[in-house]
């Protein structure tokens, strides 16, 4: 009878060891799954952070473009005011005739290039054109050169 009890005890110990081993394997698998999930979450958080940084940078660039557009719009308004003003500027000599630009409605206003070409055709020098339009001599020369290159 003792042998039967010892055999049953050994069998129970063996079963307990097998169950304990399966539980440890399940714990290891669960820990591995948690590690993988945490790693995936960390990587996705890093990617999300990178994307958010890129969005912030693009927003800053967009704001800079908006500011540039506003500045250019103001410069265009200034040029149009100067282009169509009848009062002579202090840089013009008294004996030179006023630059005459044909009056047109707003839709038909000449752009700066056309105005430069027209003044040049009327015989005004590069100095006169640049002082009247408040732009550099180099810009006047460049625009006139572009016209010649087109022709």
- How many β strands by DSSP? 0
Radius of gyration: 42 Å
Model regions low in confidence, pLDDT < 50 over at least 5 residues:
93-97, 100-109
Cα end-to-end separation? 121 Å
**CATH architecture name of the largest domain:** Orthogonal Bundle
Outline: rod-shaped
Q: Mean pLDDT, as a whole number? A: 79
Q: Please work out how many helical segments DSSP would assign.
A: 4
Strand content is under 5%
Overall domain count = 2
- Structural class per helix/strand content? mainly alpha
CATH topology (fold) name of the largest domain: Arc Repressor Mutant, subunit A
Q: Which sequence of SSEs, written as H and E, runs from N to C?
A: HHHH
| Helix percent band | over 70%
Biggest beta sheet attributes: none
**CATH C-level category of the largest domain:** Mainly Alpha
Summarize the structure.
By secondary structure, the chain is mostly helical. 75% of the residues lie in helices and 0% in strands. The longest helix is centred in the N-terminal third of the chain and has 82 residues.
Structure, described:
- It is a single chain.
- The protein is mostly helical and 151 residues long.
- It has two domains: 30-83; 89-151, Arc Repressor Mutant, subunit A (Orthogonal Bundle), CATH 1.10.10.
- It is built from four helices and no strands.
- Helix 2 packs across helix 4 (137-150) and helix 3 packs across helix 4.
- The longest helix has 82 residues, at 2-83.
- The model is unreliable at 93-97 and 100-109 (pLDDT under 50).
Could you outline the blueprint of secondary structure elements for this entry?
Layout: H1 2-83, H2 112-121, H3 126-133, H4 137-150
Helix pairs in contact: 2-4, 3-4
InterPro entries: DUF6115 (IPR046118)
Pfam family, one: DUF6115
